[in-house]
Design a protein that fits this description.
By secondary structure, the protein is an all-alpha fold. The chain has nine helices and two strands; from the N terminus they run αααβααααβαα. The chain has a two-stranded antiparallel sheet with strand order 1-2.
């Protein structure tokens, strides 16, 4: 393992640390979104349980923080600036490549283009101080103790899996953009056709509506995962179609959840109903004395003179 000057790590160590912190970042994202939404969500652009932006982020901080690791305040400031810059660059880059916004801080105060905001930047800075001062030394020690041959095999396998996963995710994004473009085109046709009148047009409009509804029905798991993992996802070029697709997706999810809840309640209600096991006890027959007393009570009293 050859240590790279200035960086202070070998390529082997950096590869292992990248895999570790990418996985930890994925765990943080999943826990945060699960607490916020109340259900499990596979966060991240890839299908694998990793978020590469966390792996690259910690590696950058670990390299640049070596001279200032014993100065917490300066470490906080440097980490805040570097992580915020990385988040902005990645966000703008993915928007440029895919015409899609994957996260949005527009609801936060003093945000910039919805990609960065002071609140998240401060969390980045505090998190990096904890990571560099507490966790990173343990990770560095662990990379040294891992058998070199096992580490090489692990890195090679992870490299192949990430490459395959990245290819599949890129194809899924291309299909999503294609679907949004088709929805846009059909929306334009319906708008154009609504101005005209005629029986032939009505037939054509029905056919267009059927195509439109089919495009809004999500059948591929990858698109469904993107919409679930990134609730604030927005399309730059097909914004209205993306909102229509999200609205259809979330309404279907709500309907499915409601159906499951109703089935559970109905099942518990049926279990609560018990068939009567015994016949109701017969009422006791009145005795002769009781009957005589009852009849005398029912007779009208004599009218006095």
């Amino acid at each position: 393992m050859t240590i790279i000057p200035f960086i202070g790590y070998s390529l082997y160590q950096m590869a292992l640390m990248f895999c570790f912190w990418s996985f930890i970042g994925w765990c943080i994202e999943v826990c945060y979104m699960t607490i916020e939404t109340g259900e499990y969500q596979n966060r991240g652009f890839l299908n694998m349980p990793i978020c590469p932006i966390y792996g690259f982020g910690v590696l950058i901080i670990a390299v640049f923080s070596r001279p200032i690791a014993d100065k917490p305040l300066l470490l906080f400031v440097i980490s805040l600036v570097l992580c915020t810059t990385l988040e902005l660059v990645v966000g703008l880059g993915m928007e440029k490549l895919f015409n899609t916004r994957w996260w949005d801080y527009s609801h936060e105060r003093f945000n910039y283009r919805g990609y960065i905001c002071p609140k998240v930047s401060i969390l980045w800075g505090l998190g990096c101080v904890f990571v560099i001062k507490v966790v990173q030394p343990l990770v560095e020690a662990a990379t040294i103790r891992i058998p070199f041959r096992f580490g090489i095999i692990f890195i090679a396998v992870m490299g192949v899996l990430i490459a395959l996963d990245l290819t599949a995710s890129l194809c899924a994004v291309a299909n999503l953009n294609k679907r949004l473009k088709q929805i846009d085109d059909i929306s334009a046709l319906m708008l154009k056709g609504s101005i005209k009148i005629g029986e032939k047009l009505a037939t054509e409009t029905n056919e267009i509506l059927e195509k439109y509804e089919k495009l809004l029905v999500i059948k591929d798991k990858q698109t469904e995962r993107f919409l679930k993992a990134f609730p604030n996802i927005r399309s730059v070029t097909h914004s209205e179609s993306m909102e229509a697709l999200k609205q259809k997706y979330y309404s279907n999810r709500f309907a499915k959840k409601l159906e499951i809840k109703l089935k559970k309640k109905l099942k518990s209600f049926k279990k609560g109903i018990k068939a009567p096991s015994e016949k109701p006890a017969a009422l006791p027959e009145p005795s002769v004395a009781e009957e005589t007393q009852t009849e005398s009570e029912l007779e009208p009293a004599p009218i006095g003179k």
